[in-house]
Amino acid sequence: MSAPHLNAELQHYQSRPLLSNRADGNYNMSPMQKAIGQTYQSTGHLAKLLPSGTVLSFQLLAPSLAKQGHCGDMNRIMTGGLVVFCALSCFVLSFTDSFRDVEGKVRYGFATFKGLWVIDGGAPLEPLAAAEYRMRFLDFVHAIVSAMIFVAIALFDQNVVSCFNPVPSEDTKQLLTALPVVIGVIGSMLFVSFPTTRHSIGSTLSSSAVPVEINQL
Question: Where are the bilayer-spanning segments (predicted)?
């Protein structure tokens, strides 16, 4: 397949929403289009591993802050700030956790090196129970990977890309096409290889979770 034809198909998929349903009309796609589509869809599924509120906020705010890709200096500052803030949010929320107390209420906390610091204003956990939620090396791995995956999502957003680089060169186009896919593949491998048991803020805690004793003050 010629380079112009491949670039045209890549641009066709980049222009489509990241999390859209691509099942419709799949039978009309060429093998190359199907391969590209599956790669983009896989990265879209990775977005589900990130805090839902962070991804939703980015998708809602990015088009208006980036002015549909027609940015002035202030728009670039605000768009860049949004990307940095959301990436930091993904990083920090990886250290949060939730549990169900004996009354069935979902409680939230932040992992520290000593244990879980309850941040919802309720009673703290018993010391032994809190120690089970202490910060571990795996949390840093997931935090870094989460931030990387969010950057990949931001690079798929044409409003953001056009805001910072309205007329990219061919080399830049190829980089912007390949880099998010590489990040997605690496992130997927790390998430599968090093799964976490945390239920961060923004994720769903199973109703069958074992209740945890709290410290009655």
Answer: 77-96, 137-156, 176-194
